[in-house]
Amino acid sequence: MDFRTPVIIPESTFRIDHSTKMMLLGSCFSENISTRLQEYKFLVKTNPFGIVYNPFSVAAVVKRLLSNKGFDETDLVFHDNVYQSFLHHGLFSHPDKNRCLENISRSFDEAAGFILKTDVFIITFGTAYVYKLKSTGEVVANCHKFPSSAFVRERLTIEEIVKEWSSVINAISAHHPAAKFIFTVSPIRHWKDGAHENQISKSILHLAIDRLQKMYAPTLSYFPAYEILLDELRDYRFFAEDMMHPSSVAIEYIWERFGETFFTRETIRANSEWDQINRSLDHRPLNNQTENYRHFLKQTLQKLILFRQNHPQIDCSREIEELTEKTDK
């Protein structure tokens, strides 16, 4: 007897390895996958404007990066004693205007250079609801606790999302014809919208992605993170304490399914080898002055050097340098 309903994922038309440059954009689920990718030494750039939830704001991030139009003080607003941008997450807000712009510009410059070399874009939509600034009609990525009276709340249509993202995909393909796209819908419910409205919102996102997938196959794939959490795992033990976000166990399982879908066999083997080395790097002894621990460090360093020889595309120079310093003491 099988007491769960496994989600069957179609075989991907393209594969990812450690030489693949990836940009992850969208809701906090993008952050979850990005964390795992970075742990396993992949080449990634994630949410250079911070977490964004709706398709129009994610599109705005891409368009701004492709245009290479940086930010200046005219892009900032001052509220609650901090400077901030309606295109950015509150992570970039700062009481000092210059510091705010410095943080925004540093992240922007890095991402603007990276996006032109990006091989795979991983896009996660969180909600179909948007907030438009009444004074300009601009869709904001973050309301920054401005009064609700400053915005108009609207729900995007399937057609609006498809039109916007067709434009974005075409613009990216013009710069990088071989670029690939992986779309997901965040399994995290936007409960403040209400149970029914959240369901409508997620349905719109699914239908929009489905239409884009048919338009851009085989360049564009859908990864069913939403279905894996809500239909396959389907139990509150796979959720965090807020009963909305996935637990660490659920994230790890979705990561495994992601790897099975997109990684090459060699990449999976390299990840397994790195996992063992990384556990050794994380080891914290009760006493770090013993001869046994020094021997353990030297063994780990040898494994690291061998790993770099076997996988020259994976940059582990920082770990080798740090471990070399420890063994020389």
Integer average pLDDT: 95
**First-to-last CA distance:** 57 Å
Structural class: alpha/beta
Number of strands: 10
Radius of gyration: 22 Å
β-sheet strand percentage: 5-15%
Q: How would you sum up the global shape?
A: globular
- Biggest pleated sheet: 5 strands, parallel
Number of helices: 10
Q: Helices and strands, in N-to-C order?
A: EHEHEEHEEEEHEHEHHHHH
Low-confidence stretches: none
Please state how the strands of the largest beta sheet are arranged side by side: 2-1-5-9-10
Helix content: 40-55%
Describe this structure in words.
The structure is a single chain. The chain is of the alpha/beta class and 329 residues long. The protein is 48% helix and 13% strand. The protein has helices at 28-39, 55-67, 97-115, 158-175, 195-216, 225-233, 248-262, 265-282, 291-310, 317-328; strands spanning 21-26, 43-46, 77-79, 82-84, 120-125, 129-133, 139-140, 151-155, 180-185, 220-222. It has a five-stranded parallel beta sheet, with helices on both faces. Strand 9, helix 5 (195-216) and strand 10 (220-222) form a beta-alpha-beta unit. 36% of the residues are buried. The model has no long low-confidence stretch (mean pLDDT 95).
Helix and strand topology:
Layout: E1 21-26, H1 28-39, E2 43-46, H2 55-67, E3 77-79, E4 82-84, H3 97-115, E5 120-125, E6 129-133, E7 139-140, E8 151-155, H4 158-175, E9 180-185, H5 195-216, E10 220-222, H6 225-233, H7 248-262, H8 265-282, H9 291-310, H10 317-328
Parallel strand pairs: 1-2, 1-5, 5-9, 9-10
Antiparallel strand pairs: 3-4, 6-7, 6-8
Helix pairs in contact: 2-3, 2-4, 4-5, 8-9, 9-10
